[in-house]
């Protein structure tokens, strides 16, 4: 037996159920053992003296009379016995379940879930629990066709067969001792079936450490490898050309832009590999910094690729970059291009006729070969996983990589979480920006908002109108957006042009709707959240967000950042009747600050890291148990140890750490 064998080696698992378990990511025995509960049902027994009449609760105690079944009437019966909890004896009645008598053993401990009848001092039993006091029952995530009970049973079977003993220890003794961590097999068992809360906490501490430590080991190893790569590109360009270009821009760079640019250019010139994160709030001007870096690369005779998450964004970048950098030869590459168009673009890329390639995922697909790819820039990097980043990197001449994100991550956290990257931060907005004025109104006040909008529209303003977000249902999203479009059309009649943009549209259609808005033909753009990232229409000065409380702070901040891009005063109107305190709190904070970092931290506090660092978005690994924010102290400690260990280039040969090198390559945090 080894843990890489498929689940079908377990009794009761055939090919059909194996297929179902596979949907949960469970293929091997090891997958099963490491499939931890996402929560526990606390079947902690209550004190019978504290129960209210009619309350349902678990009461545990000792069985002090034998079970007695009495029959009355047709098929009806009652099973009765006495349970003693401490010094209190109570009657327990089960109706019409005579077979339970087998489970009731005189003198044994027993826990019963039931309904308390205070006047009769008796418990009407609903369920007998196999547990005694303080029991925590695991609750697993399920999928169609896999029940809680069947999963628990399967995991129990695995433990009964002693499979946990096959789990190899993967942390060196030195670390187990230093942090007083439980052994691996013991911790895994306790994760599934903790004896009590203390047992669970101890196990959790161990598995969290293991996870974050291996994550950090991988990052640190990657980082030291990159630092040691001297065969990266050392770019060389005429400094004066770049200085002249900077001077010819329509604006002066902010100090923060200058500093970030300097850091990036230094990396480009150095033979070491660049792996840098450029972080800046929406509107802070990351694009021009990226543009200047690509300009420098072109001056050094190298191609650059700019990868963005959506086609609209790609097109927009093409437009704004060709305006700021008309000298650069530029081509667009997206998935929806026609064959002939695509072929021409590919040829231009391969023969080196273009300096800059802007596109979506299409940039890393088969069939794209670059001439001399020296710089890769990934915009809104949180949408791309580490694996994709790596793919793009491998396509070039070991190119330098710059990632840009508008998700404000506190610096210390960024450094730890993206441990393999250097970080540059643009923490300053261009001069002369007027802070966006944000108001929160209730749905009942919408007519007032519309009246006000009508006046602003007369003055030539344009409006984004964001329709409510229905999580998990694109169909409902669309329905909402359509309804909103109709209402606005009815309200404004011929006085305003209303158009709709939503996620399900073909990219051609999206493009033409966006273009209409940019050109000012459309006054009101009704949209689902597809415009969230990067879109730039300076004349749009009003953003109305329906059911704003459905969004997280960071997301609202991103959305709001679509306005306030020109000289005119901009406004964000949040329409929401939040039901919860935290919803109200969020609306209030939005009206009080426009600082993305403050909002990000509030968001973290209120909603946990999942929303910001959710695996789909962050490009960070999905941890089984650890939470990057909540477990930050563990992460920080893990980083410290990992960098100490890897600082010695021969760490793999050291007795203490040898074990790590064996397990390191089998971990998959960076895929
Ligand atoms: P983001 O960081 O959100 O990507 P952009 O790069 O799109 O921001 O910049 C937002 C707007 O600000 C653009 O219209 C850009 O041309 C302009 N901009 C950038 N830097 C400056 C600056 N230093 N001074 C004035 N305007 C600037
Ligand atoms: Mg941008």
From TrEMBL:
CDD domains: DEXHc_RecG, RecG_wedge_OBF, SF2_C_RecG. Residues 267-426 form the Helicase ATP-binding domain. One of its GO terms (molecular function) is helicase activity. It catalyses: Couples ATP hydrolysis with the unwinding of duplex DNA by translocating in the 3'-5' direction; ATP + H2O = ADP + phosphate + H(+). Gene3D superfamilies: Nucleic acid-binding proteins, P-loop containing nucleotide triphosphate hydrolases. It is an enzyme of class 5 (isomerase). Pfam families: DEAD, Helicase_C, RecG_dom3_C, RecG_wedge. Signal peptide: none annotated. It comes from the Bacteria. Residues 449-605 form the Helicase C-terminal domain. Keywords: ATP-binding, DNA damage, DNA recombination, DNA repair, DNA-binding, Helicase, Hydrolase, Isomerase, Nucleotide-binding. Its EC number is 5.6.2.4. Belongs to the helicase family. RecG subfamily. Plays a critical role in recombination and DNA repair. Helps process Holliday junction intermediates to mature products by catalyzing branch migration. Has replication fork regression activity, unwinds stalled or blocked replication forks to make a HJ that can be resolved. Has a DNA unwinding activity characteristic of a DNA helicase with 3'-5' polarity. NCBIfam families: PRK10917.1-3, PRK10917.2-2, recG. This is ATP-dependent DNA helicase RecG.
